[in-house]
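Handout, page 2. Input:
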Amino acid sequence: MTNMLSRPIALFGVATLAATFTLMTGGRAARAAEATAPAPAHFWTEQADPAHAAKAQSMPDFVELAAKLSPAVVNISTDEPDEPAEGAEQSPEDSPHGDPADPHSHSPFEEFGGPQHSKALGSGFIITKDGYILTNEHVVENPGTVTVTLQDGHNYVAKIVGHDEKSDIALLKIDVKHDLAVAPLGNSDDLRVGEWVMAIGNPFGFDHSVTAGIVSAKGRFIPGNYEDFIQTDASINPGNSGGPLIDLRGNVIGVNCAIYTHTGSSMGIGFAVPIDLVKEELPQLKSSGKVVRGWLGVYIQKVTPELAESLGLADSRGALVAKVLEDGPAKAAGVKRGDVIVAFDNQPVDDSRELPLLVGRSDLGHKGVLKVIRDKQTIDLPVTITESREPEIVASEEKSEKPDLGAVSPFGLHVKDLSPDLAKELGVDSPSGVVISSVQPGSRADEAGLRARDVILEVNRAAVKNVDAYQTALKTSAAGKIVLLLVRRGDATIYVTVKPEA
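Output:
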């Protein structure tokens, strides 16, 4: 586990009982079509009490909500595998680590990181009467044993039925001989900014803590994550991960998973995975233990205003294709590097981060249409979605980068010809282009994010084979105009804009 307390964004929900906390990472169907289609059969069937819906317009009754939903919220702890056999039930006093429901029952050695095994804590909530439980994937990441503690204090060893790292969701199962209280799943798409919400969880080991706030925003993106999050100011802290975010109708509308923090504690900006995304994944998690997504086989980047100007675009919406992978759907569809994808199946792509969500939610084999802008012309490209090969590609592309030094050119760049030996070292297919040997601090190139060992392949869409061609391309650029560079970095290619010299 990686300690992330010093980072602004923290995926938090596993808190050790020591004085420090370990923080870890981790196509929507049209509503109109859903309204006319028969309701699908799910293994979670419970619905919220209609009586709560009428109260949504009045002053919040958090007392009643807390009483109704708290029995469905559980504490989740992970420890070394010296617990009872799977499915065995314990009373709180029988637990070798004390009562996880009581933060004061643990020994001082465990509390302050002594020689005993530490017990990481998170939250979860029950979604079926027979014991299926939702939580965050990072709460149960690489555990020896997963122990679920109900509100009544009884412990159960849980089985991890399925988990998905990209959405940070895990499905657990405990074996029980009686019906359990259930937290009904709502509709996060119907959520409105400004609505009251309530969170229940296990912050810092204090079980079933209730906090309240409002929905601060929807569609928030966190770098390195798959989904668009719900933002809330309901107080969320380490240990809340995997707990429910609840609306005034008594429905779960999100799974709490992250906070924005400089201190490791709540600063009033928390994030939750939208429950509609979770509901899409549940059938696969239950049946196969993982989520299989569609892909296009492209590397994309955000269209900045500078890139839009360089490409002659009217605005900065869409996803700029920096690289098209071989044997992928996009390659077969005729997508080219430099294309800007502005829609998928008539759904606009205003932000580049929306495209993976739209494609990932498509059924495998789905025949869709990409709308792209190429050389200022809009064209439609039919594409067939296939299963993502991202994990194997990422594994094959993990290569270390080493710094290099060299000679000078405009914008504060030091460049040199890409030799065959250096091309082989950098993993470049052919020794064509110029390599950046160093970047002058504070220069235009530095401001643009260029790095040593980046390989410049194009200048203003014109290929450059060597330093002479590179310098010629720069000289022919219009004075005072932004320069568009295509850069190879590791195994990825990206477009970079460099502002003209002052």
